[in-house]
Queue: 2 jobs
Job 1
Amino acid sequence: MTKDNTDKLALEKLNQLGKELMDQLDRKEAPSLKIPSRSRSNVEFDQEKEIIDITGKKSTRSFINASHVRKFMQTLLVAQASEEYIKNGRTVGKRELYYNLKHKLTGTNRNTWDDDDESSAVIDDLEAILDIPRSQLHISAKSRGSIYGDITLKQAGDEFSCKGLGKGGWAIPGNVEDVEIMDYNAERILFIENDAMQSRLIEEKAYKSLNALLVTGEGVPPRGVRRFVKKLSEETKLPVIVFVDGDPYGFYIHSVIKHGSMAIAHINDRYSIPRAKYIGMTMDDIDKYELHNVTEHLDKGAREKLKHNLSYEWFKYHPEWVDQMKKMQKKGVRIEQQALANKSLEFVADTYLPEKLENEEFLP
Amino acid sequence: MTKDNTDKLALEKLNQLGKELMDQLDRKEAPSLKIPSRSRSNVEFDQEKEIIDITGKKSTRSFINASHVRKFMQTLLVAQASEEYIKNGRTVGKRELYYNLKHKLTGTNRNTWDDDDESSAVIDDLEAILDIPRSQLHISAKSRGSIYGDITLKQAGDEFSCKGLGKGGWAIPGNVEDVEIMDYNAERILFIENDAMQSRLIEEKAYKSLNALLVTGEGVPPRGVRRFVKKLSEETKLPVIVFVDGDPYGFYIHSVIKHGSMAIAHINDRYSIPRAKYIGMTMDDIDKYELHNVTEHLDKGAREKLKHNLSYEWFKYHPEWVDQMKKMQKKGVRIEQQALANKSLEFVADTYLPEKLENEEFLP
């Protein structure tokens, strides 16, 4: 979708919401909103769509209910502001929105909100009500991470390439809804956990030798990066290959990229990429590439994370993931991406990744 | 300095180090290294240079001292590897170096090192011995942060502009030693704490209206970003204006940019920018711009940080900083950059920054 189309859709949805409330008033009903329940108990793994989703359960937020009225007001406050942001072509951060809309309510000594937990919850609610990601309401995510590769993008009237940028890439902004893909020459998107590994692959000119767009979210990717890769993958149809540390955190990052997160279960379908594949690191790599001397001990936090992973439905859904977790538990070690440097600096770009890509040696 | 020159200098220094050790052996002396002491007790604020520095005190690391020999070996291991990295035109991350050089010592069951605290300490030692930043030894910092503005850079054979990149900028890589400035059109460098504020200023096209290069290190800037701005400021002679939250962390970030940090006191002169100025946020902004309703309570952590700040020599050196800390302590509040959105989204770009720049309303 182009920027104009997403803006148009968002405005339509916001107008529809306003219209419904006006209709209720016309019918002399108390205005109320139907809000899909985002509570953890309402989150489930949808095996058909292969995403972490919410069930259909909804709650009602009513203007004339004393315990609802504050949140009701806040919801409309954000809806109204979003309309304004879209019309003015501005995008705000969450924290910026919090400050932008914080003010004393007329005739009272009370604020619209007192901390940004309140505004954040309402932004999530509005996403769930309208079924569009917050970025389409012009509320942006944290800008972090970058892309390097042979792709030409267009945003805000600028057309630019993501290669030929020295050793850095294009810094992925917090809102990518209006990014258009003009042209690209790549066979895959490589979603890399560590920025240092991306740096290695940039230096080895792996974008060329692996025909890959090199993206990193610098650890757990923020929403902006996930939305960006989701858009890339949808519009180019390129496979998404996830390259993370062989540890409970790496697998968790992969699970978030592939199936989404519990925190945004109400809108995961706009972020998650069920067909993403896991290239490494795996527990089997340790034997295959003789990396025994560069494993690291699984500490207490990692062991806890591992147990949590094993308890999730979407982990149990993949016997290959469970197998990796069990091997990790048994060996008591983890293996980082950068441990491959023990073979040689170029090993990852010259041997490890090309071999696995060639043989399609992936986990789901 | 161009890349070739910094490489040449580093190789000369490494060779000199090797030559000294060889000379010692020729003289039948036990090989030993003189290492500037990096211990906290050896750190002081140099009022003349206006940087946090180490005193001249040195310690000796000897090959024939049983408690030195391991570190001695590690120091030479990194020196040797650096030479190789430079000659091969490769740059490694700290963690990558750790793995790259971890191996069993011949004829023993012991590793060159067992965790990266060991390799990190030795990298710092080598910086201190050779008096060049690790990036010139081709050991790079974390890549984080970005720049947006009217400047053309060259790195790794690529020439590129840092404007015309949509809503993102150029992702600053972990090593910027070989970045050349080809051309620029700006009157100042604006060093911004929060990436969301940089996004706001990019959206408002403030690089044009403020004639500024917009740089963010996303919080406490990593070494790569500091080194980048240091290079920019030295080669362009542009003023560096720091724009951070009005809280103990914001002031601390400013102090690190301006005077350096205790952690790398042995090499601060390659990172710190003593002539950097502080534009905001200040405690006085709260009254001047009527921001009382959007201050935040100083929590316990912030109060502790504030007390630490007040105990530092380089804070006491600036009565204006002490004054701000005292006001903050008295009011018990902090004021974030983004709180300016309470006036309007464009206020920061249209009013706040232009007014302060026009009137040169800075703290040191």
Job 2
Amino acid sequence: MGTTQLETVPEPKYWHLKTVLSEALDSEFAVGEILPNERDLAARFGVARATLRQALEQLELEGRLQRRRGVGTTVAPPRMGVAVGSAQGTWPGAVGDAWQPADCAPAVPPADVARMLETAADEQVHMVRRTRVSNGQPVAAELLFVPTSSVAELTGMDAPSGAARARVVLRELARLGLEGQDRAVELGSARADDARALDRLPGAPVLVVTTRFFAGGRTAAVSVATYRADTCRLTFGDSGGVEIHHDSDRRAS
Amino acid sequence: MGTTQLETVPEPKYWHLKTVLSEALDSEFAVGEILPNERDLAARFGVARATLRQALEQLELEGRLQRRRGVGTTVAPPRMGVAVGSAQGTWPGAVGDAWQPADCAPAVPPADVARMLETAADEQVHMVRRTRVSNGQPVAAELLFVPTSSVAELTGMDAPSGAARARVVLRELARLGLEGQDRAVELGSARADDARALDRLPGAPVLVVTTRFFAGGRTAAVSVATYRADTCRLTFGDSGGVEIHHDSDRRAS
């Protein structure tokens, strides 16, 4: 399975078709336009339905097409630039934060999050759920895991749940001195609850951004944010969060 | 097509199967182990082949499974943490850079890159090709586009092509004062040449990292780096490039 073997594999047929289709999208179709149905398209390009479907999947991965239930396949607008944090780093919920708190409940975090937080395997933490909307569209859903030890002053007295509870947890968290954060981005597939929040079906490709917040010499909170991979490009800028758009790219700062 | 309608859509069958399969992977299979063939798996879980295939695709998206030609489907090791740049920012080719220059040739950049560089539509630039290897595996391929105006001192005299030429271009570029950079991450599918470098088939899902380097008040170079989405998680750290691994996560700095 070396590189040599792959070099002798001819380009798959759907790959060539993808290139041809991509050029047709540029020259013949406008953003939002609905493509002809698969049978007509396959006939036009003289390929099998299966080949066409593979090429359409590629174009969907690349953000050129959107498939929507009950509508069909449409030409996608350019992806939105969505700013992910700043170099300096602030707590979730700081001024200018693009996220809206939706809910807060006690929950046992997934095993890998528990390891980062150094909580016991069955230990409950505060799980804050937030959503992010850009240009009127849901673009991301977040689970923020905050161990009870990070917000020790918190009482269960007022705002026991819901968005109000989420705001109280964020406010308490912000009392800690933030020492730093790091971030990882990887490909994932939308869990059922995230898919609902993002108006997608479960399993849709998403970009998963995991952020660890450090305070008091340990991981004080972990955020797992799920961005729609079809409509978003995540931007990381020196300028500390200016949104950069793909097609009107000029230096912002 | 609001959220409400999606809420009434029942969870697809492959989604439930994916969860069941994922638990079976945890409890019954070791990393690198080859899964039984699709027919046997479909029979064991009492599902149609098509449903099984969808569930396997999900697990591949999530990095749990790898499908390799001529081998079959194997249980994937945890994704590698691959550090993407530092907060401070350095020129490509600086000391400690993880990339190896492979080639350099004149080329007309893609339209979106030309827009960022503010070069004319048919203007040739230096196109440096580099590769990145981690733990003995190819993890990323990069095209670095450098306008001739950014390396004006460069002559065509020595090292007209190849890795030596690439190093000369990088050395000249590093003479400019780097004023800043920004970065975007998005989902893409591997182009044929990248796929070869990454030992994948064309169209495999990749994470595309586009970096703009600013010098002299303009974009002096643009890097388009393609990371394997199946094996990599991209890390962005305060610590300026310490690699963080998914399963042995402790604070590094």
